[in-house]
Design a protein that fits this description.
The chain is of the alpha/beta class. The protein is built from twelve helices and 34 strands.
């Protein structure tokens, strides 16, 4: 028998009457389809159909995680901590060791929801009361105190969402990498600067979408190449300059004439390369060893829709997930099954509308739970069962209360939806939204959420960026003790010793803008998890791509791309 009979009967009625149809997104105004497979997934996961388009669902969940920026804050006891939460956030915070200690008891904040309260109202009360860790990070990471959402990190500074990395600075979504700075979504690589979506590469700078390359600069979509400069879509090449084959002597002479230690030279080449990348053919979507999938950057998966998915089965509308099954509307999840509307849920089963949960079973609308079962609306619990809003119940008490809460949420049109934007402890521009999606202050105001205005302490002691030598050869360790003003944002920033050492090793100029500006620029290169229908430029077959129709870059289906690249037909390149 169902432990929640009232809710199940009401939901069955909704699902039985559900037919394929077109909906208008409640958040963006765009239309989207609810198809037969979507209905099947709703029935499997026991949720009503969504009210927003899939990428808005991903964006909404990422509003509940911190973004690129960190803040120095003083706690009520006078202790200074580095945290993800901006000074205006309602979140109470604890230093990470204190939050992980046995002395911290989140059950002390539990309470019973009144009949007059909606669940989301009760949740907001609990959310404002229970302290959160200043940073979410793996306790086993070493010398990586200024990194967030990382796992098994060592000597990493200002890194974001990475696993098994070492010696990184300002690097995001990295895996199994070392000695990288200003990089995004790279894997199995070393000695790189300003790279996006590169794998198995070494000594690579200012490049994107390259694989198994060595000693390349300003290259895009090259594979198994070495000693190449300003090239696109090359395979198994060496000593190429702007896609022109040269002798080794000719190549080295041209490259030696370009002093990338000079920041002005770097910007000149950025400007020169940008139109070449725009004009070059681009593979619409990357799908490897997969069956019946739709999306981009999908590997070893089947019956799956989304972006950046590995070893997934029967997963819909997901981003950045590994080894997940029978799930929908999930992001940054791993080793989990039958989950929906979840963010950063690991090693779990049947978790819904929750975030930062590990090793959990049948948990709903909860945050920061570890090894919990049958919990609803809880925060920060470990090894608990049958809890609601951080209050302990018996099994006999738990199910009727959950049945009543879910029934009321269903009647109000709330059940099945993630926490509303307004419940996030993060400002719009300091949250995980900023890491992937373009946004504006006006958009945050339209959604009714906060926007943080950066007012840097210490700006009076910061110096103009003009005081930073333009050429790396003129730069001394003195800059490590200075703060510089970003010419774009006015925010101050500095350099750390490992960062300067990597620049010297790669002989490349230091950046002259704030790290967050650089990260936002790379995020734009990476492209947000959003899919557009387009036509192959060559054969006009229908394709799905993350490149919006407004982009002028020509996209090709896999067959046509192989003819152009692997078949070595000339791609349009303007010098």
């Amino acid at each position: 028998m169902s432990p929640t009979p009232l809710f199940d009967a009401a939901l069955d009625k909704i699902l039985d009457e559900l037919k394929p149809h077109t909906r208008t997104c409640a958040e963006t105004g765009e239309t989207f389809e609810i198809g037969e497979k979507d209905i099947e997934m709703c029935k499997l996961l026991r949720v009503p159909p969504p009210k927003t388009i899939w990428w808005a669902r991903i964006r909404q969940k990422r509003h509940f995680m911190g973004g690129f920026d960190l803040f120095r804050r003083t706690l009520p006891d006078g202790q200074s901590v580095v945290t993800m939460f901006d000074p205006e956030s309602f979140a109470k915070i604890l230093p990470v060791p204190a939050w992980n200690s046995d002395a911290f008891d989140p059950m002390a904040f539990g309470f019973s929801k009144t009949s007059e309260q909606s669940f989301f109202e009760a949740w907001r009360s609990l959310s404002a009361a229970v302290p959160r860790p200043a940073l979410i990070q793996d306790p086993s990471s070493v010398n990586s105190d200024w990194s967030t959402y990382g796992w098994a990190m060592k000597n990493c500074y200002f890194t974001y969402e990475g696993i098994f990395n070492e010696d990184l600075q300002y690097a995001d979504f990295m895996a199994w990498t070392s000695n990288n700075a200003d990089a995004m979504n790279n894997a199995h690589s070393e000695w790189r600067y300003e790279t996006v979506d590169c794998k198995y590469c070494s000594r690579t700078i200012f490049s994107e979408r390259c694989e198994a390359c060595i000693d390349i600069a300003f290259c895009a979509a090259c594979k198994d190449c070495s000693d190449c400069f300003g090239c696109t879509n090359l395979r198994h090449k060496k000593f190429c300059f702007l896609n022109e084959q040269l002798t080794e002597e000719e190549y080295r002479k041209r490259v030696l004439a370009i002093d990338l230690r000079d920041a002005q030279v770097v910007e000149e080449w950025r400007d020169r390369i940008a139109p070449l990348w725009t004009e070059a053919f681009r593979l619409a979507s990357l799908v490897l060893r997969s069956e019946n999938v739709s999306g981009d950057d999908i590997q070893d998966s089947r019956d799956t829709i989304g972006v950046l998915l590995y070893s997934c089965e029967r997963v819909s509308y997901a981003f950045g997930c590994t080894n997940c099954k029978d799930s929908a509307n999930i992001t940054s999840c791993m080793n989990s099954e039958r989950c929906t509307n979840t963010l950063k849920v690991f090693d779990s089963y049947d978790v819904k509308h929750s975030l930062h949960c590990t090793g959990c079973v049948e948990v709903e609308y909860s945050e920061l739970l570890t090894s919990c079962e049958y919990c609803f609306g809880c925060i920060g619990l470990k090894h608990k069962r049958f809890c609601i809003l951080n209050k302990q119940y018996t099994e006999e008490e738990y199910w009727p209360l959950v049945d009543a809460i879910k029934m009321a949420m269903l009647e109000r049109g709330e059940y099945g939806e993630f926490f509303p934007h307004a419940a996030s402890p993060f400002a719009f521009n300091t949250s995980g939204i900023s890491t992937l999606y373009p946004f504006t202050k006006e958009e945050s105001e339209k959604l009714g959420v906060r926007w943080h205005v950066f007012t840097e302490l210490g700006n009076a002691s910061a110096v103009s960026i003009d005081e930073l030598p333009t050429n790396l050869k003129d730069t001394t360790d003195v800059i490590l003790s200075k703060r510089f003003l970003c010419p774009i944002t006015g925010r101050s920033f500095g350099f750390v010793k490992p960062e300067l050492a990597l620049h010297r090793l790669l002989n490349v100029a230091l950046s002259r803008v704030h790290p967050t500006v650089r990260r936002m620029q790379r995020a734009a290169q990476y492209l947000a998890p959003r899919l557009y229908p387009r036509a192959c430029t060559s054969c006009h077959a229908n394709v799905v791509t993350r490149l919006s129709p407004e982009k002028t870059t020509p996209v090709l289906c896999e067959t046509c791309y192989e003819e152009v690249v692997i078949g070595e037909k000339e791609a349009p390149v303007s010098v």
